[in-house]
Automatic annotation (TrEMBL):
Taxonomic lineage from the root: Bacteria, Pseudomonadati, Pseudomonadota, Alphaproteobacteria, Hyphomicrobiales
Protein name: Regulatory protein VirG
Record keywords: Activator, Cytoplasm, DNA-binding, Phosphoprotein, Transcription, Transcription regulation, Two-component regulatory system
The keyword Nucleus is annotated on this UniProt entry: no
DNA-binding region residue numbers: 144-244
Gene3D superfamilies, alphabetized: 3.40.50.2300, 6.10.250.690, Winged helix-like DNA-binding domain superfamily/Winged helix DNA-binding domain
Length: 249
């Protein structure tokens, strides 16, 4: 178990990001808060969903680290509730290594997850990666142009997805990044590894299985028939193919 407090170079963003830790274990919460603070972030801890709600009523946060096992309302329920209201990146902490727990968290809207016991270097890398991905639309000139496909409009700068009627459709950070990558590589088969690379995830990104979960969630939002997808095709032993014609908006 390598959860001791560590300080690493170049982990802090240029402007401090605020992070909310929802963890009922006081030792772990304290260690995480201190580690994040020493790496340039503004960290606040809550021990339950109710305490988290009180903090969120007072201020907004750039990212939430959310434990699964909490007193009262569990992390899965909290994640689903948060996702109905905001797109704040969520990293879930789970003590269970089983894929089912990880997939459930992703299906409820988490952007990434870390299994306990965790290495603080890994968690910091994942946090830094998610914060970077949440804002990289304004950092990468090649991704500034809005794109249209099959009646949809994707704007990488505003980070919005709008349907043909002008209604905005909510997407998580990971879902939006994957959709942008698919749009910018329409007509090409992309492997899961390529999608991770194109979404700027690198070593901090979700594992291959989570790509499948996020693609499934995107299909639920944009496909005319998610059970028989026509826009995002699965290529056996290959990856995914985005079929629509994509044009600059």
């Amino acid at each position: 178990m390598n959860m001791q407090m560590q300080t690493f170079q170049n982990c802090a963003p240029e402007a401090p990001a605020s992070i909310l830790i929802v963890e009922d274990d006081r030792d772990i919460a304290g260690m995480l808060a201190e580690t994040l603070t020493q790496n340039g972030y503004a960290a606040v801890a809550a021990q339950s969903g109710a305490e988290m709600d009180r903090l969120l009523r007072r201020q907004s946060f750039d990212l939430i680290v959310l434990d699964v096992m909490l007193p009262g309302e569990d992390g899965f329920s909290i994640c689903r509730r948060l996702r109905a209201e905001a797109r704040t990146p969520i990293v879930m902490l789970t003590a269970v290594a089983a894929d089912v727990d990880r997939i459930v968290g992703l299906e409820f809207g988490a952007d990434d997850y870390v299994t306990k016991p965790f290495n603080t270097r890994e968690l910091l890398a994942r946090i830094k990666g998610l914060l970077r991905r949440a804002s990289y639309g304004s950092e990468r000139p090649g991704r500034r142009s809005a794109m249209t496909f099959a009646g949809w409009t994707v704007d990488p700068v505003a980070r919005t997805l709008v349907d043909c009627a002008g209604a905005q459709v909510f997407m998580t950070t990971a879902e939006f990044d994957l959709l942008v990558a698919l749009c910018q590589n329409a007509g090409q088969v992309l492997t899961r590894e390529q999608l991770l690379s194109l979404t700027h995830a690198g070593v901090a990104g979700p594992v291959e299985r989570s790509v499948d979960v996020h693609v499934s969630r995107i299909r639920q939002k944009i496909e005319p028939n998610p059970k028989d997808p026509s826009l995002i095709k699965t290529v056996r032993l290959g990856g995914y193919l985005f079929t629509p014609v994509v044009e600059a908006s």
